[in-house]
Structure formats: structure tokens, C-alpha cells
Amino acid sequence: MNLKPRGNWILVERRKSASTEEETVVLLPEDYKKPDNPYSVVKVAEDSSLIEWSYGDMLLVPTHIIREIIIDDQAFLMIEKNHIMAKVEE
Fold this sequence. Notes:
single chain, mainly beta, 10 Kd Chaperonin, Protein Cpn10, Chain O, globular
């Protein structure tokens, strides 16, 4: 299945973490919840008509604006163009 965003919407995917930390065991209270990062780096998942962003570009966005859309058991992530804070370059 393919999803073609329109208007200000951009199809993205979560950036894979490059961390290679060793796993450690730490005992925590049962009600402990790891704090969520308020910002995420996402990767543009397809070329769009938007001049600023192309396939593979990494973008910094507030985590809470990432929308997950499920169609026939397939998940798509979308963001609105006006929520992009920065382009991330390595």
C-alpha cells in the first residue's frame, strides 16, 4: 500500500538509533516511567513537491506532533510542514 500526502503533510519514518550501548540491569519502582523526549528526529520517507525537503532528509520535530495513521494493518507516520523546527545534518 502506498500513501501520498497532500497539502502541508509529509510522510516520514522514525530514525533508527545508532547507539551501541551495552545493556545493563537497573532495578526501578514498578510505577517508574521513562521520561519521553519532547523532540524527535524523523527521516523524510518519500520525495514530495515541497522544495525544502527531499527523500532521506532528517528533520527535527516536536514528538507530540507525529501522527500515526493505520490503514489495513500498515502504519504510516506523517507530520505537518509548519511543525518542522530544523533540518539535521551530520
